Amino acid sequence: MAKLNIVSALNQALDQEMARNPRLLILGEDVGREGGVFRVTDGLQAKYGAERVVDTPLAESAIVGAALGLAAGGMLPVAEIQFEGFLHVAMDQICNQVARYRNRSRGRYQLGLVIRVPWGGGIHAPEHHSESPETLLAHTPGLTVVQPSNPYDAKGLLLSALRLGEPVVFCEPKRVYRAIKAEVPEADYTVPIGKAAVARKGKDLTIVAWGAMMREALEAAEELQAGGASAEVIDLRTLSPMDSETVVQSVRKTGRLVIAHEAPRTLGLGAEIAARVSEEALTSLLAPIERVTGFDTVMPLSQLEEYYLPDHRRVLAGARKALSV
Amino acid sequence: MYFERFDPMQGQCLQILDQAGRLQEALRPDLPDGRARQLYERMSVMRLADRMAMSLQREGGMGTYAPFYGQEAAQASAAFLGPEDWMVPTYRETGALYLRGVPLANLYRYWMGDERGMLMPEGARTLPIAIVVGSQPLHAVGLSWAMKLKGEKAAAAAYFGDGASSQGDVHEAMNFAGVFQTPTVFICQNNQFAISLPRRQQTAAATIAQRAAGYGFPGLLIDGNDIFAVAAAMTEALADIRAGKGPRLIEMLTYRLGPHTTADDPTKYRNAEEIEKFKPADPLLRLRRYLEAKGLWDQAAEEDLLRRGQAEVEEAAGKAKAAPPPAPDELFAYTYRSLPPYLERQREELRAASQAQGAVEAKRG
Ligand SMILES: Cc1ncc(C[n+]2csc(CCOP(=O)(O)OP(=O)(O)O)c2C)c(N)n1
Q1: Is B163 an interface residue toward A (CB < 8 Å)?
Q2: Is the domain covering B2-322 a CATH 3.90.110.10 domain?
Q3: ipTM
Q4: N or C: which end of chain B has fewer CB within 10 A?
Q5: Confidence band of B362 (pLDDT split at 50, 70, 90)
Q6: A57 vs B201: CB contact, 8 Å cut-off?
């Protein structure tokens, strides 16, 4: 089996689905000739033509708004927003339009469309290229929000998103785009949306993470193991609608919970996970829930970035704190 | 007169100094030879500053940088703004900001990932650069509106690119400016690319300048590599704006000779021949030819300038490299005027964590 990184796994998913589904088209800034600034759509315009892999003018609101119309008109648009910071330009179309169309039309319009967006920090980029605004999307009823953490899930989740028949925002952890290589079957397969994965089994505490933070969480778990503590690591994968059942089940077993994310702490998804766990498994908790997160500040530029982004050491410190009670 | 005589709708483009360095005297704006020579010197140093940023990036000290190589004359439009005018730049305006008096070392520091570099000199009417493409022309409209309301004879210059012209916010900015007759000059540097997208795929219109008609104010297309055309357009636009005649749009047609940014690989979307084709249009080349023909410039002057310029940019680079890194506390300093208690706790958390980390690293040696 071929070893692929996340970029090539996503590229393969798009390529295979385009071959299968003539209604699929890709649109966005620099997605065609350039193949995307991260090369996720590399080679697809040459293969499928400029009508199916469309370089659009520079206008995020237009990209998403037109994708809505394309979907309503029977196409399967895959819109790329170049960086998560530019999603905000399209926020009316995403939150007020795309997310509500099923409701507004009383179910008449099932909008199958995918908005792909590179996500998160750690690449020493300029302002607005390093944020993790998943809360804004998860707080919007009607949106499905997904973020893979590895190449296998990247392909499987993207194929699921393309076949879901619902609007999906597909967040791609840019820090580990090329950093993680894993075996990815050439064959067609899907990874279910709405299901978290237990990435590592353990019994002493639960760590929940997603996207690039999974690497940090797994590394922390490895170090904990060396110190004799066994951590169960859960990859949330679908951020909304969230699979809190898997988390609750794990906490019932371990009694301790650490949630790690890059986004600011206040109202980060960690807050929702903590709330659900305290609603459903309060009596199982042996220690306060630990949140290891970005700070409630503006995401800094590169010289302070490493202070902002939680890494495995901060996850480890959070885990030790939870274990010390 | 330029805005009236050159109609972008008729495909007219104002050029005064051609590529061979020949000047059309009949069209000459109030730009005496002495000032032209001075601008040549500033534009040349600007180019050295741009090159220095590129090499700092290659050395690894700088993150991403957006070069303006080839756009020096358009960047020099900033030289025609007064200190009372506002400048509203994008990420590509390093040359213009340098002319505005922003210390080069600060600009380098910013691109090295130190946000203190964006602190503009006290009293400077220059906004921080905008990274969100198309966001800032609206701010220029508001600023110039404030000038109008306060009765100040000042304009605001909104810099943006051909790509930005597709953003809804840029349309909205020009529409507001037209409706409220704000003293705004919209400066579109059309460098013919938005990353990989050529200008012809950005809009089906023949020019960006002609859009002004749709907003009810004049627009002018100029050869943006011709400093005389830049001077003509800027002086006339600013004079009209100060006379209360409302906004103006100038499209400066230029060509980005370098990559979009240091993270960009232009071979993906244009070939080397295309770049060679545009090299003779270089804004410095034709101005130098003009000055030489007038006996105002020669090889010795050029060498002397390059030596002084190189020393200047090296000093700025040295300063930027020697600047101590920002303290972690800086992260919290500007979120709110005063820190709410939970943020104070987060700051303490970070202080404790970095001390602990420092101790671990010190032990490891
Ligand atoms: C809203 C937004 N979308 C996308 C980007 C990514 N991006 C940065 S520069 C750029 C192209 C801008 O082209 P143009 O406006 O012509 O200016 P130029 O960079 O050529 O000077 C893009 C797409 C961004 N910074 N902001």
Answers
A1: yes
A2: no
A3: 0.96
A4: C
A5: low
A6: yes
